[in-house]
DNA sequence: CATGAATGAGATTTCATTCAT
DNA sequence: GATGAATGAAATCTCATTCAT
């Protein structure tokens, strides 16, 4: 049962993608070099360009793979949620797991910025984010949260923004943040009825 | 009344800072090079290192200057606000002005990420963000918004997150987002009393 | 039977070491540049840093190789000497061959000084010198020269010092110097016995 | 009693020479730069080229001044010596004071090597060394040391060589070295008369 | 399928020196 | 007499990529 050449090739490719995801977070998108990738993956430098047309292409593929996995995982979590509060709880758990300086958060942020300078990446990333927002909005709508689309957008943005800010130093803890975020998904708006759509006083 | 050598020096320094702020947004923090800076500022390459100890130092100084100005401007706006809604309106105006792909938004995002890899920058940037959050929280507290600190943190994070997301493509428009964000600062929480502090469901 | 890529690599590396040894002597340790090395070795500039981690590393390896060879050669000569005088004669021959302004002498001197500013080099060079002194001391001890260690140290130092001085201009000729140096290794100490203290045998 | 402009000029010149002597030892002849000199001397960069025609000229003047002082001091010491042994003792004291890694020793060595690449410096330095050897030889001759010229040359060379070697690490201590060096100046040559040939008087 | 030597451009930074003030 | 801004060359080193093997 010996490994074929093709097996080794696949393995090398896989390790390169892994290395790319790590290095984007560690060094920043623009600072990842062919040699770094090769060394981290344990392959010769030439292998990088054998498997990928360019370093950019490798980074893009690696980043999208990670983000896709994560979104899918988040989406699956939401499927199981019975109330908006529960769904929100799941998102808060993400906040607890990803503190803004962990590899995944950094990969996200780096990819956001890189997308601003790479058309293909922007399109792909846009799809990922849109998918997530749509799934979240659907969930919110089911539970009568008003303005589900805008709410989902704000929630998703707040999550990412909180990650960014946390990277800079300690802020309010997750418990307090949760309480505030919950206001966004309160199912009904009592008292002086701030009727949802479109006004600036 | 002719220009002295010192005048020319100051002018060159100023132009370099200006060029740095532009280029961070256009090319990304790590991709800004000495030559690009010199060319954009209209000075000889050697001048960059005459005025600044390193390219990093120049980028850092330029980015912090821009962010400081912006925060100050935002703070001044809030001083004039009479209600949380009004203050929020001002922030929304920012969202309208800065659409996530404009130079200022990109400078913000780039600086956030660069801060993750530069201790000095992280500290300085942390101060700027903290100052802003504090000012905002003060405003909210005056108007009986519950949990003013956490609310301010979420609001600030949401603003930055929305900018990031908008860079990827169109989302809900500013009007809708405003309405949702307003929930965060509703002065009282009637009905089923979601008592503010410290709970995870 | 054509040359492989590996062969060419080895050859390029070898030529760089050769060029480094020449240039240290010609221009001085601190004045040897990447470009000079590449040009002299007949390779592209980038090749220097492909084969060596830094110019310093290349210079160090080159210098130590030359010195190691020379010491070994000197040691082998001493193996064949039957009396201290004969051994001394061999060393004098070195003095005749290396007049203080030849590449080898200059390489020695440059390396001594560079060692003062590079920890690794200092350690390596110290070992080379110690080895030589030890070999010389052993030879002296076999022939009943008193204080063989200190004598060896003085002899080795005198040789190097003479080289340095000769670089400045003509001094006494080798024959005269030999006669004086011979006093150091006279097997017995007649007259008022300057009793030697504290030698480690 | 205020300082005139001329006074300040002289003071700046003096401080630059002082700084040059220090920096040659610390960084090596070829690594001393205009900016380093200006900073160490506490003057503006332009002042260096105002007082000296080039950095090389400044270094040369500074090095020769230090060496001249030292030789003069050593010569004065020898004037007071009554026997070769006493004179030798003085030289040994130098060995104790200058351990091969102190500023003065390093300045000497750096200057020796720089002299190999600068005609003017070589000539000037040659004179300094020759003067010293001549003074030493005169002293030895007065005390019937045979071959006084060659002996002086060997002694001077051994001193410098010992300094160089000591910079690399510990060797025999000064006491042991003294005992060995003393053999060189033993007033008579007993036993098999190694008849000294060809000394230049 | 993989290698690793090579390339030439370009990165940051430091340099000695000049010159207008 | 002194200044300090500016210059343009050159320093070291890293880069993505190519290609012969």
Automatic annotation (TrEMBL), chains A, B, C, D:
Q: What sequence ranges are listed for the domain HTH tetR-type?
A: 10-70
Question: What organism, scientifically named, is this protein from?
Answer: Actinoallomurus iriomotensis
Q: Does the keyword DNA-binding apply?
A: yes
- Give the highest taxon in the source lineage: Bacteria
Give start and end residues of each DNA-binding region. Answer: 33-52
Keyword flag DNA-binding: yes
Provide a Gene Ontology MF annotation, just one: transcription cis-regulatory region binding
> Which Pfam families is this protein grouped with?
TetR_C_31, TetR_N
Q: Which SUPFAM superfamilies match?
A: Homeodomain-like, Tetracyclin repressor-like, C-terminal domain
* Transmembrane region(s): none
State the protein's name: TetR family transcriptional regulator
What keywords is this UniProt entry annotated with?
DNA-binding
